[in-house]
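User: I'm putting together notes for a lab meeting next week and I want to include a structural view of one of the chains we've been expressing. I don't have a solved structure, so I'd like a prediction I can at least talk through. The sequence is below, exactly as it appears in our construct file.
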Amino acid sequence: MERNAEKNRFLQFYIGSLVLFLTLAAVGCYWADRAGLISVRPATPAASAPREVITDMAYVDLPRMTVSLGSGVARQARIDISLEVARKDIPVLEGYMPQIMDRLNGFFPKVEFEDIDEPNSMFLLHKDMLRQVNNVGMPISVHDLMLRSLLVM
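Assistant: Thanks for the context. Below is the predicted structure for the 153-residue chain, given as structure tokens.
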């Protein structure tokens, strides 16, 4: 009997504490709303509010290149490439343009046509070309390389 009474008091204490907490939370929300401390803004979907993304990166187009591929069957490729650099580094990149073109013209004869024809070859070609460009010895870094077109003739 004493045990049931103790359980009831314990249960009443917890229920009373919960009711008191919820009451104080409701009163606090009411007064915060009246004082203007709570502001409810309607949710706006991202698609309805277009924002312009401003970055400090820019693409610089390299001159179109016509290069020989591989040492086997005589094949040529016409390639259009753009390099992504910071806007402030564009003048430096333009000063190194002859070295970049020379490096890429020396790289493509080592590339076999069969290497380009494989499924994941474009990823590897992209990675190798970016490495070649960054190994020119420029004081800046080329962040990305965009292969705009690759036409094998």
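A couple of points you could mention at the meeting. The mean pLDDT is 83. Helices lie at 2-34, 90-95, 97-107, 113-117, 121-134.

User: Perfect, that's what I needed.
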